[in-house]
């Protein structure tokens, strides 16, 4: 019996080589993610049905959010999420790129590891801590020191008009998001820049390029798509960030052209109101906001991928 | 360049997971052990400190009973008691007609009273600014915008008010506190009632939103000339200035545990198994009643399916509305008045297992 059993296992083993098992296992893990994404989409879609039936596309274009009379429109939240995230990118991208270039190209060897370690550590700070710091330090700072010069020198722009209440504003939300996405954007950009082959740089230097020129002609074009990916990763974090931004953005569902006005984001309204939402339509509307958040993330991702492919096709020479 | 691919895959995966909303709150599975019995509850955050105090005190008296309370919010509490995943629920507002109709055989037991105070940050002016109901409503409606508005000044002739804009602060999260406050404003101002109404979240005409009492308190402390509403306990513990409100009898009343209890004492209340949706103790009559307060409720089923567990639950509720009340004052909750306790006694006696009363 032993012999028969052994030969059976031998056959199995010869069919199921280590490679096959390995592929099956990792393939299964990859499929899990796909399946999870599908379930998430499906669940949010089904649960938001009531709200979609009641408000239709008007949900996206109206700006009344009244839980008492159960009239819901998500426009102020969509606006708040997109504007605060773009503002965050506007601030964070130059910083992140600078940090990445410094760490990979210019910093002395001794500094590189500790510095990049510290920057990555920043990403590990819980967002509620950053939010508290935002309320007590950043918001008053912006109110006292950043807003006055902005309104004095750039006050002719509608962006910097109107009063700011205690620093709780779209601007503060954008700044705090920027702080939160710098670690991820800069560390991914740094990794990407490090993958640029040394001979690229050597070639540029051999042609007499200065440090800046080397970075500009040899390194950045090579790493372009990867850096773009890093930026999108930061955007993804900004768009879904909830706690910290809720604490500093003022939570007022109004659309204003001034960055000094309070605003509201999609993730914030879900976090704020979901727990105490009792009526079916109310819950369903909040879920629809969650669904929209997912859809927006998807669209941005896909757009980013298409952009990366286009860039590669036009100029070539890049790396995916 | 596989590393980049991996990074990009991670990016996609990360984006997928942003903004996910869980449909079901964490559910507590009732456990059945012969020795210790766990009574599971879920609901409002406001009574959480009191219920957890009860839980530990009751465990000293009855070591075989564990009270496990999850403060997941009134909405989630009502949902879980509807689905019978917990033994008792808790809500800051009475069940609405519709909710009451959805849960047959539910009992509502007021277990404590919460008061809401109107706090402000006026440099140089301490606690005790007098406000009338219409002035409060007009401030929160955005009709009164300056501190030196004649409406405010005439109520406080001895105080010098600055010529500054009023910054209104309110809760951004759905909360029982907002429910009580908007219930009060709806009761005293027809304008508020038609334009805004009452609810755990409302469409605020003006102001900034802060998350939780601490969020509103933070807004107040950082914005001179601001005004907002917070729980009495929070204001007292944090030493935040608050105003005296003119009540129905025309007296300006300081919010205290006593004046809040007075408001509850005279209330006409329905039977425990009837609908409580109309119950409100805001703007109560009585010379010494503070006008902005509300009961907070425990929700249990009249028909208990499990004899042992039902009995233990009834005993615990009995203890909570009697002996449990003595822990209220220390935690700055308002103890129940006598007539509410005797109403609760009747309600708890309605609890039964197959027609057999449990207590």
What would a concise description of this structure say?
The complex is a heterodimer of chains A (320) and B (359). Chain A is mainly α and 320 residues long.
CATH fold topology of chain A: MetI-like fold
In terms of structural class, how would the helical and strand content of chain B be classed?
A: alpha/beta
Annotation, overall tally of beta strands of chain B: 13
Computed over alpha carbons, the radius of gyration of chain B is 23 Å
> Biggest interface between protein chains, with counts per chain?
A-B, 68 and 57 residues
Beta-strand level of the residues of chain A, as a percent range?
under 5%
Q: How would you sum up the global shape of chain B? A: elongated
Task: Describe the overall structure.
The complex is a heterodimer of chains A (320) and B (359). Chain A has a single domain (50-312), classed as MetI-like fold (Orthogonal Bundle). Chain A contains 13 helices and 2 strands. Chain A has helices spanning 2-15, 18-47, 49-55, 58-61, 75-106, 109-122, 127-153, 170-194, 198-206, 211-240, 243-248, 266-273, 280-315, and strands at residues 65-66, 71-72. The longest helix of chain A is centred in the C-terminal third of the chain and has 36 residues, at 280-315. Chain B is α/β, with parallel strands linked by helices. Chain B has 13 helices and 13 strands. Chain B has helices spanning 2-17, 48-61, 74-82, 97-102, 133-141, 150-155, 176-188, 190-195, 212-222, 232-237, 257-265, 307-321, 338-349, and strands at 37-43, 65-70, 88-91, 106-121, 130-131, 167-171, 208-210, 226-231, 244-246, 252-253, 293-301, 352-353, 356-357. In chain B, strands 2-1-3-11-4-8-6-7 form an 8-stranded mixed β-sheet. Chain B has a 3-stranded mixed β-sheet with strand order 5-9-10. In chain B, strands 12-13 form a two-stranded antiparallel sheet. In chain B, strand 9 (244-246) and strand 10 form a beta hairpin. In chain B, helix 12 packs antiparallel against helix 13 (338-349). Chain B is elongated. Chain B starts with a helix and ends with a strand. In chain B, 51% of the residues are buried. Mean pLDDT of chain B is 88; it is low at 17-27. The chains are: A mainly alpha (320), B alpha/beta (359). At the A-B interface, helix 2, strand 1, helix 7, helix 8 and helix 10 of A face helix 1, helix 3, strand 7 and helix 9 of B.
């Amino acid at each position: 019996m032993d012999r028969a059993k052994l030969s059976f296992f031998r056959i199995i083993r010869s069919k199921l080589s280590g490679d096959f098992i390995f592929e099956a296992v990792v393939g299964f893990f990859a499929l899990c993610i796909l399946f999870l994404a599908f379930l998430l989409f499906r669940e949010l879609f089904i649960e938001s049905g009531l709200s979609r039936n009641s408000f239709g596309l008007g949900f996206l274009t109206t700006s009344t959010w009244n839980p008492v009379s159960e009239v819901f429109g998500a426009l102020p939240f969509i606006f708040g999420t997109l504007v605060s995230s773009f503002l965050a990118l506007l601030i964070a991208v130059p910083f992140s790129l600078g940090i990445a270039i410094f760490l990979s190209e210019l910093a002395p060897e001794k500094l590189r590891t500790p510095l990049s370690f510290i920057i990555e550590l920043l990403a590990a700070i819980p967002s509620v801590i950053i939010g508290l710091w935002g309320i007590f330090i950043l918001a008053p700072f912006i109110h006292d020191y950043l807003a006055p010069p902005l309104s004095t020198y750039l006050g002719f722009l509608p962006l910097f008009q109107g009063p700011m209440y205690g620093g709780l504003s779209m601007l503060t939300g954008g700044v705090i998001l920027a702080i939160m996405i710098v670690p991820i954007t800069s560390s991914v950009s740094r990794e990407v820049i490090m993958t640029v082959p040394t001979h690229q740089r050597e070639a540029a230097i051999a042609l007499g390029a200065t440090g800046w020129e080397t970075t500009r002609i040899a390194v950045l074009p090579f790493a372009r798509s990867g850096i773009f990916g890093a930026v999108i990763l930061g955007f993804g974090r900004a768009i879904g960030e909830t706690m910290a931004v809720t604490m500093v953005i003022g939570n007022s569902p109004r659309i204003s052209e001034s960055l000094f006005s309070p605003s509201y984001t999609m993730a914030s309204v879900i976090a704020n109101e979901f727990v105490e939402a009792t009526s079916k339509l109310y819950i369903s509307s909040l879920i629809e906001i969650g669904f929209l958040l997912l859809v927006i993330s998807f669209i941005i991702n896909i757009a980013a991928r298409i952009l990366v492919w286009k860039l590669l096709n036009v100029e070539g020479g890049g790396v995916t | 360049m596989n590393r980049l691919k991996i990074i990009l895959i991670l990016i996609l995966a990360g984006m997928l997971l942003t903004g996910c909303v869980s449909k079901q709150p964490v559910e507590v599975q009732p456990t059945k052990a012969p020795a210790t019995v766990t009574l599971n509850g879920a609901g409002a955050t406001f009574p959480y400190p009191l219920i957890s105090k009860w839980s530990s005190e009751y465990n000293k008296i009855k070591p075989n009973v564990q009270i496990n309370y999850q403060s997941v919010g009134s909405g989630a509490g009502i949902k879980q008691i509807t689905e019978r995943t917990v033994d008792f629920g808790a809500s800051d507002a009475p069940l609405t007609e519709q909710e009451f109709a959805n849960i047959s055989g539910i009992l509502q037991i007021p277990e404590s009273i919460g008061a809401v105070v109107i706090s402000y940050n006026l440099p140089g002016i301490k606690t005790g600014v007098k406000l009338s109901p219409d002035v409060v409503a007009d401030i929160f409606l955005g009709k009164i915008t300056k501190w030196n508005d004649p409406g405010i000044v005439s109520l406080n002739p001895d105080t010098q008010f600055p010529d500054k804009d009023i910054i209104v602060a309110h809760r951004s999260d759905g909360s029982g506190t907002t429910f009580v406050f908007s219930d009060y404003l709806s009761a005293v101002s027809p304008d508020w009632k038609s334009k805004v109404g009452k609810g755990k979240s409302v469409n605020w005409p003006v102001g900034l939103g802060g998350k939780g009492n601490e969020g509103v308190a933070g807004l107040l402390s950082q914005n001179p000339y601001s005004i907002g509403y917070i729980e009495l306990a929070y204001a007292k513990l944090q030493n935040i200035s608050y105003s005296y409100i003119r009540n129905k009898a025309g007296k300006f009343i300081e919010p205290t545990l006593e004046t809040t209890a007075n408001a509850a004492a005279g209330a006409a209340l329905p039977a425990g198994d009837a609908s409580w949706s109309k119950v409100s103790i805001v703007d109560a009559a009585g010379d010494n009643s503070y006008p902005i307060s509300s009961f907070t409720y425990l929700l249990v089923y009249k028909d208990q399916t499990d004899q042992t567990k039902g009995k233990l639950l009834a005993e615990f509720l009995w203890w909570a509305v009697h002996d449990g009340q003595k822990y209220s004052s220390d935690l700055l909750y308002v103890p129940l008045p006598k007539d509410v306790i005797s109403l609760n006694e009747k309600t708890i006696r309605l609890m039964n297992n197959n027609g057999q009363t449990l207590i």
